[in-house]
Amino acid sequence: ISVDYQDGKLYWCDARTDKIERIDLETGEDREVVLSSNNMDMFSVSVFEEFIYWSDRTHANGSIKRGSKDNATDSVPLRTGIGVQLKDIKVFNRDRQKGTNVCAVDNGGCQQLCLYRGNGQRACACAHGMLAEDGASCREYAGYLLYSERTILKSVHL
């Protein structure tokens, strides 16, 4: 699901029907099929300015495509070979980002990692060591054990 704030439309894709559709965001009327294809496996859609972007898990071993909001059949692949596990895509639009992030200034006072928690709150963390008592700096460490769990790297302070 994606909201087109510029035109006041709600877009969605249906993996079962292989369609991208839109509807008027305010009235819930004017339902339109933007793209329909039997040879795509669409799973996610996102809108930015004049284009729609969607994931296609069948094309070129997983791809992200872009097409015009008015005629998405003119689509072009932006990335291919991503893999068939491709699930979701989102567009970052700087104009839609409001508010402030305490981590943006002086790393939020954290020595290593600043994790924004919303509502002006943050939490500090350390890449490998342990967080010191002051909650912002990291303790020194003599070593750490690095290991993986399938696709995730983890560490243990020694």
TrEMBL record:
Q: What is this protein called?
A: Low density lipoprotein receptor-related protein 1
Classification lineage: Eukaryota, Metazoa, Chordata, Craniata, Vertebrata
Which gene is the coding source of this polypeptide chain?
Answer: LRP1
Q: Where are the LDL-receptor class B repeats?
A: 8-51
Q: Which UniProt keywords apply?
A: Lipoprotein, Receptor
Q: Which residues form a coiled coil?
A: none
Quote the PROSITE patterns the UniProt record gives. Answer: LDLRB (PS51120)
- Supply the Pfam families for this chain: FXa_inhibition
Gene3D superfamilies (UniProt xref): TolB, C-terminal domain
Q: Which InterPro entries match?
A: 6-blade_b-propeller_TolB-like (IPR011042), Cueball_EGF_LRP_Nidogen (IPR050778), LDLR_classB_rpt (IPR000033)
